[in-house]
Amino acid sequence: MDQPTHRAQNATALILSGGGARAAYQIGVLLAVTRLHRRSRDNPFPIICGTSAGGINAAALAAGATDFRRAVRELARAWLSLTPERVYRVTLPALFGRAAHWIFSLMLGGLGRFNPRSFLDNRPLTELLRNMIDFGGIGRAIEAGQLKALSITASGYTTGQSVSFFQGDDALQGWQRAQRLGMKTVIEPPHLLASSAIPFVFPAARIHREYFGDGSVRQVAPISPAIHLGACRVLVIGVAPQSEPVPPREKVVAYPSLAQVAGHLLDSIFIDGLEADLERVRRINRTLERLPAVEREQLGLRQVEVFSIKPSRPLERLAMPHRSTFPPGLRFLLGGLGAFRRQGSIVASYVLFHHQYARELIRLGYRDAMAQREALAEFLNRAG
């Protein structure tokens, strides 16, 4: 298992995975954390790592780490006032103009430097981020000792590397592994725009010399940045439902809709990497338990305690009752793709940035966390 780039001090990390609008689920879990943590104003997570929409949540928490309870409540308030208009342009002319741009580009074999970059225009998100997050607060929290590091992961389209941009204390250094890079910097809005740029849905963001897209793409080790930054214990909040028995294979007549195929791809981007990394960490922990302490030290390996919380229900099922909250133009386009059928609803659950859907996810996250209240409280208070 990767070693930290500085001496570990039993630091606890919070890992917030990607998932578009599904990231509202994380807020419910965090509200439960503020209730169960003995010193709820103190930040229980000196290391905070986020990817995609989880990166936005992570940055907001890091910026308000000097009063963790208040930071969580303000983040919840932001999600509970969210509408699609605050994330992407939703007027009919904007949506159909963008659709026409794609059609003409495909029919003409490309438009050169005028090729379309995404299906949705997320320029409103830039203003939302600046109003929602005091980016200067990240540095102040580090200086106050309430935060050791914030990491935001994005995927480089030129190099193919998974880059974890991190802001932290002076002792921290960058790292480089196969297709994984840790780069010390000052976290700003472009890092969040890049990390949350779902391929084809939102445009890539340029940072320095390269364009970056959603951090979940090619992120084969989502827990790794936290370990490099010194974490010995991690709380992982995912957006994938808890494992259910695999249903028996049935004969299928209808060809899968575009939304069903797209949903399958989105799940592979946002879910599979985290689940595989969790399984890998737990397997290594079990192996290390069998080795003497001296041998573990010689190998440069250490155990990492992992506590994970994930939805008890598939989040796409919560999205369907709120499909009328989509802007009319987008609802028309998604309906044509089959996103409102049962097998295609995954796509809708990723882009439904509306407070009604967010409220359902927050409630579920809170209930799921409180269902493990004893174990979670022990984890938090042992950490703090």
UniProtKB/TrEMBL annotation:
User: Which keywords belong to this entry?
Assistant: Hydrolase, Lipid degradation, Lipid metabolism
- A Gene Ontology biological process annotation? lipid catabolic process
The chain positions of domain PNPLA read 14-227
Give the annotated active site: 52, 214
Output the InterPro entries linked to this UniProt entry. Answer: Acyl_Trfase/lysoPLipase, NTE, PNPLA_dom
Please name the GO terms that the record assigns under molecular function: hydrolase activity
As annotated in the record, motif GXSXG runs over 50-54
Name of protein? Patatin-like phospholipase family protein
Q: Which organism is it from?
A: Chitiniphilus eburneus
